[in-house]
Amino acid sequence: MAVVAKAGEVQLELVYDQAREIKAFDETKAGVKGLVDAGISEVPRMFHQPPDSFGETYVPNASQYSIPVIDLEGVKEDRSTRKSIVEEVRVASKEWGFFQIINHGIPVSVLEEMKVSVRRFFEQDVELKKHFYTRDLTKKVVHNSNFLLHTTPAASWRDTICCYMAPDPPSPEELPEPFRDMMVEYTDCIMSLGHLLFELISEALGLNPDHLLKLDCAKGLSQVCHYAPACPQPELTLGTTKHSDDSFLTVLLQDHIGGLQVVHENQWIDVPPVPGALVVNIGDLLQESLENCIKQSTINYKI
Prior knowledge:
By secondary structure, the protein is α+β, with helices and mostly antiparallel strands.
């Protein structure tokens, strides 16, 4: 609060202190889930996104646009099928930078249990979660709300836990109990799928199947799990703001709620959840490595 002198009288003027609000929020270690549990009816100002952060023209149901869905059935067994799939990957990567995959080899039961177990972590007692809450990104397990909370213009409406699972994974005992077993199982599945995707992308570029693997593109893996609880004023904030991924490749598992949007032809397009599907995002590092042969993709999450 600031005191302002005006025409012989004292006038009190409230001055918003964003840094102070952020500090107080972060020190609770309760995250966005803590705000919801406290019963707030208004989104704190630190989460208010400027209007231009919501992106280009939004086309929620544009029939002329359809995120490519690629069926990987038979990709390892039939040479002709693989050739056709490689061409689909090439076109989708070049024109979108995004595509969904089905029949990818990971059982639907594993996908569903992974979502359930991660949700279980975020919805457990806050005192149990605080053990993992940190701003130290050198740790193998990092839980917090917004990695760049203290430097971003406005916070996103989400909490996150990130587990660095390769090449030097944490021991099972270091992982949170609610998803400990599933994280290990899901990591094995994703690493195997990642090798296949890098083979297909290499072939789509006219290279040997192991070209990107020899560059160690599949050597590291971080599992990033976001949680965006129900928001009282969703028009004011976003679950994840506009960005591109600073990785070689992102494989995203959506829940049934969705909210993912991608930029295509300067318009925001919904990526509707497809049961059993995974979303593949060509990341910045892969784009740069291939000297702009593949289109960079931009995404956000609405609440």
